[in-house]
Description:
The chain is of the alpha/beta class.
Amino acid sequence: MTTALAQDIDTGVGLVERRxxxxxxxxxxxxxxxxxxxxxxYETYGTLNAARDNAILITHALSGDAHAAGQHTLHxxxxxxxxxxxxxxxxxxxxxxxxxCSNVIGGCQGSTGPASTHPVTNRPYGARFPVITIxxxxxxxxxxxxxxxxxxxxxxxxGSMGGxxxxxxxxxxxxxxxGAIIIASSARSTPQTIAWNSIGRHAIMQDPRWQxxxxxxxxxxxxxxxxxxxxxxxxYLSEISFEAKFGRDYQWEDSPxxxxxxxxxxxxxxxxxxxxxNTRFDANSFLYITKAMDYWDLSARYGSLEAAFSGxxxxxxxxxxxxxxxxxxxxxxxxxxxxxxxxRPVQHSDITSHAGHDAFxxxxxxxxxxxxxxxxxxxxx
Length: 381
């Protein structure tokens, strides 16, 4: 089973196709609400073997989607967001593993979210979409695995919010996960990360074009979403990376013009990030997904991290990065300590990088051998 339409060992998985699975049965949510129907957009790479035991689920971060690798057309400007890690002879080797990636519920890239049509009103949900959690996202993913006929995952892997989902899989569905790879992530959202997310949501909801979420027939809140993205993007980099990329360079001149208009190169960069984000992301999805991230607290749900991991059957790999101040190394160490306390097999590598939180996407070279070795070890665990 595969949605890869072509494969080139030099370029990766080649051309791929996005597919959709829909269920009419209501999905019970943590809030007490239900969601129906539910659609998940997904892509797969590689081939599911006869034993159906070589599947790896890739879970995405806040602004990610199901398109993790390959190209939809030969004219795509960029491949999938983790193309440098997925494909023949890459860590997530499509010659060996069947790779799955789906867009989370609440998203805006084909899965059911605020822009989807409400079955009763026949209009977009908007702010009438039910509030969701990381656990709700994973519940929807279990339906996808059932649909694909996969009882147990060889591994689940994700960075940032994707790490939240991987942890949820390993604790809430322990019988279905053999290995978990948690990259640049945490077992909870700290007050600082909640604060950053809150600023982003506030920017969107204060944009007059937000209209209480009912903007789909008019102009969307582009200013609010752009500001939210600019604020978020600052947290993804590090002071060292900002200095190296921009310093105090001016955009056009070598000296100040003594104006209130943007002059510095870093200002231009952040404006560009905000503008391009508006071309591919829905403001309401940003609100709902960041809220789900804020609710994330594994220890609160189980009483402690040790209790959360006590029933897990998976082997764990945690990767952190020295310059990541959004989900710093200390957060990974809390998870590692809890896993060791309950005698779960765990490996942890703290990788030196100046890229900040974005290191999990851009500094892939040091990650590759670690992940490859970990995946190979699951087979003998």
